[in-house]
Amino acid sequence: MLCLLVLTLVFFNCDNDDDNADNQDDCNFAGFTFLDASDNTQTLIAESDLTTDFYYTSSNGPEVEIYKSSDPGNFWFVTLVVTDGETGGGQLSVDGTIYNVNVTCQRAGNAIGEEFRYDITGSGLEAEYCVVIDLYH
User: Which pTM value belongs to this model?
Assistant: First the structure.
């Protein structure tokens, strides 16, 4: 299943970081999504099956970890990019394979219940996380 996810992301990408994207200003598609070849947003993992930890007091500085609640060891994303408009790096683990990705923070929260929205690119893929902070440390 996760191999299919990676292949899907390689062949189809999402362009939610440009000014023409429907969800540029709103998180209409919650979860881990991509834009398919027909210009339809596909949700690969619903926000309800993702857990978002905001570590404000991390030894690395503030960071966000997002993981699949039912499979946290095999599907996760972590980044130090935590402010609106910031770009930087992150890591995405799919089925135990870790990918270094480029990250753009499009919306930043700082409390439980607030949203984070990320555009991630790397290894020929582009996808988006739009999640609500579940845990704050």
Answer: 0.79
Residue 104 near residue 15, CB atoms below 8 Å: no
For the segment 123-130, the average pLDDT, to the nearest whole number, is 85
d(CA 58, CA 56): 6
Domain of 74, in residue numbers:
2-136
Cβ neighbours of residue 47 closer than 8 Å, sequence gap 6 or more = 30, 31, 130, 131, 132
Based on the structure, what is the number of domains in the chain? 1
Is 19:114 a contact under the CB 8 Å cutoff? Answer: no
CA distance 15 to 8: 15
CA dist 131 and 109 (Å) reads 10
